[in-house]
Amino acid sequence: MSYLEDTIAEISRKINSREVTVSEVIESTFERIELLNPELNAFISLNKQQALENARNADTAQKQGTPLESLHGIPIAVKDLFATKDTITTAGSSILSKWTPSYDATVVKKLKQAGAIIIGKTNMDEFAFGGNGENDHYGVIKNPWDKTRSPGGSSGGSAVAVASSMAYGAIGTDTAASVRNPAHFCGLVGLKPSYGRVSLSGVIPLSWSLDHVGPITKTVEDTAILLNAIAGYDPNDDSSSTKSVPDYTALLNKPISKMKIGVLKGYFWNPIDPSVESAMEDALHALRDLGAVTTNIELKSAEKFPLLMNTIMPAEAAAYHHKWLTSQQDKYGSKILDRLLPGLIVNAHDYINAQRIRETITKETIELFKNYDALVTPTVPYTAAKIGETMVDVGNTRMEASSARTKNLFPFNALGLPAMSIPCGFDDKGLPIGLQIIGKPFQESEILQIGNAYQTTTDWHTKRPKGLTI
Questions:
Q1: Is 79 a catalytic residue?
Q2: pLDDT (0 to 100) of residue 469
Q3: Which residue ranges form the domains of the chain, and what is each CATH number?
């Protein structure tokens, strides 16, 4: 079915015009999942019967003339970190393998209110503490561009579901990189909104002060559509912002001429794979052709970000997991234990100093935005690694894969700024490359505007993995 590889915007128009029914879309989507998921392993569980029933109800409502919501009948996948009513929510773990919430996470509730049909829960790194998609309990997730390679993580299943057109969009979480690095490795758009823009209520935490929820889609337009549905204040989330939410789709087509974009060099550009550097230079040229003004700049304190990540995230994660680490440690996979256990010995002195440094760098970065509308970096300085690789070559530098894939992304979790990865090219192996666009606090509209302008003059976002069409 030709519509299976459509964007959210495209399939929505076809449903609204009755070119295709919601039931047909849902049935075709599950046919594709049944064909591709056994090999790609993007889903932990599926909601087929409920989804088919919801589809029939959506078709009936449309025939009766009921006004249609923005996501009417659209199949959406949700990372298995979000509570879903009457559906097992595992967090990619054995500890929660039988947990069936009696409620929906706020984001899931909002998606349903917007008319979306939740088709299943996606595979992930255990408790979201990892970034390669290798789960000791639910298996390895495979990148559809090259099944021998990692899709990134921890929202790897969400990215693979969208890249392989088993879902029209998906929701993930991002604590250090986990929406944007899978988007980079899988040729997609991945947005981490401002801290507080999207509710964390009903999301199993990894690190309270760093966690963000965001969409993974094929286009910037689709990202704006999903963000419209899930953004906004939630009284059930203490971190939720009361700032008003604009209509992100209404602002997409504003021109970016004369917008000032700071290109973060130094730490964010070194080391870098030559193919990524070349794609970045081409992307910057395209932005200048659109009238944007780019200037090379540096963030003086950037080298301190690894220290912040290695202190704040494990300490907060260990605090949440303490009850299980002391009673059910044998149920954890070895990969997550290697990350959790060091958090138990982070002392208060180091944690508090890390938070103070974080505050100082936040002020420094906000100062940069007095002169720039947005900042850009390479999303990740290398392309997808082979499954199981723990070390990667980044240009002439040998690095830990985990450090390299979070290096340019974690800073904006620590700073709470909106950041989005969009496709900007491929390397000589045909593996995707991403450009990261960073905005001012709660100015998602501006980075969506820049990303959408870029996608009007390039076609990287239209490319699909070969060999997956049915």
A1: yes
A2: 55
A3: 2-462 (3.90.1300.10)
